[in-house]
Every structure is written in C-alpha cells, then in structure tokens.
Predict the structure.
Amino acid sequence: MHSDDERKKLLNRLRRVTGQVDAVARMVEEDAECVDIVMQISAATGALSKVAQLLLTEHVKQCLHDAADNSNAADREAMLQDLIKLFEKYAQTK
C-alpha cells in the first residue's frame, strides 16, 4: 500500500511523536511548568494528527483508484460508505 519512502517518512514522524511524548513524561516527573507541559502535548498532538492526515490522504487516493477500476456499482458504493465511516470516526477524535 505505501511505498518504502512513504513508510520511512511516516515512521520518522511517529518516532518524533514518541520523543515528544517521552519529553512530556520527563517534564511531569521533573515537575515542569504546566504551560510548558501543555505546549509539548500540543506539539505531540499536532504531529500525530499530521500522521493521520497523511495516512488518510493515501487511503483516499487508493480507494478512488480502486473505485475507478471497479465497474460494480454496489462495490463502489460500499467503498464510499467505508470512507464516510472512516472520516466520521476520525472527526470524532478531534
């Protein structure tokens, strides 16, 4: 599904998020200022959101490609409904 280059980019972003979350834990352990901790959480949340956006973009592209190649209207409708459900679930996490 994903090329090796895309996979590497996603994994690098996820490693960065892991580092940010580890930093939050250290900050809590060290009793850092609340504002600083919240800012680090915000950065990690934004980075993780970007990973989700990249994954969703690639998934939509693949679904559209598959739908264009599929002559069965029922299959295309099922793909569309799956995409709608995915976006609904993603929107609930925001």
Observations:
- The CA atoms of residues 11 and 51 lie 9 Å apart.
